[in-house]
Design goal:
The chain is elongated. By secondary structure, it is mainly α. The chain has helices at about 5-25, 30-85, 95-130, 130-145, 160-180. This is Hemerythrin-like domain-containing protein.
């Protein structure tokens, strides 16, 4: 059973891996597959954080947690706007890799801040409550990712309940469209043809 920090960091490492697969390849098919995987993971990860982790910041860290959550939501919105453009591009577009690099710059800063400041503060507060709370958050985070959209929808907002409602409406459409997208053969993805 993992903690919420471990679950978030695991996703961050996957995002880094998918990013590197795209930027270090010259094969358009490989780039498209890993670009789709990157989009799929980032969209689900972002919404999962917004629905589970940021409310925990507010609950367990008080006013400081509210400031952290608001800052992270703003950063997510900016990244989602960039992802919205990237996710609709083909890997044969000469701007495909530059757009991903443009997106990854602020995303990598966000990841660094989250791992060095936000998550340690949350884990410290949760340790006072007991580790079961961190494990429970991790479980909720994982479950939530199964039901949220797999594409970026920045107009849905970053705050519950609006994001929850919009997510429930758009997720089935995203998941059906994922069936027709290419994904890496050896990764977990929503595309049943890769299983």
């Amino acid at each position: 059973m993992s903690t919420i920090s471990e679950a978030i960091k695991h996703d961050h490492r996957e995002l880094e891996q998918y990013y590197n697969e795209v930027v270090n390849s010259s094969d358009p098919d490989h780039q498209q597959r890993y670009g789709n995987q990157f989009t799929w993971e980032l969209a689900r990860h972002s919404v999962g954080e917004e629905l589970i982790v940021y409310p925990a910041f507010e609950k367990y860290l008080g006013p400081e947690g509210k400031q952290m959550a608001d800052k992270d939501r703003e950063e997510h919105h900016m990244v989602k706007e960039l992802l919205k453009t990237f996710q609709n591009m083909k890997s044969t577009d000469p701007n495909y890799v530059p757009k991903l690099k443009e997106l990854y710059g602020p995303l990598s800063e966000h990841i660094k801040d989250e791992e060095e400041k936000d998550l340690p503060a949350l884990e410290n507060a949760l340790s006072k409550e007991g580790t079961a709370d961190s494990q429970s958050l991790a479980k909720s985070f994982g479950r939530t990712k199964a039901f949220v959209p797999s594409r970026s929808h920045p107009n849905a907002g970053e705050n519950p309940p609006f994001e929850t409602v919009m997510g429930l409406l758009t997720a089935p459409i995203d998941h059906i469209a994922d069936i027709f997208r290419k994904f890496p053969d050896q990764t977990i993805s929503p595309n049943p043809s890769t299983k």
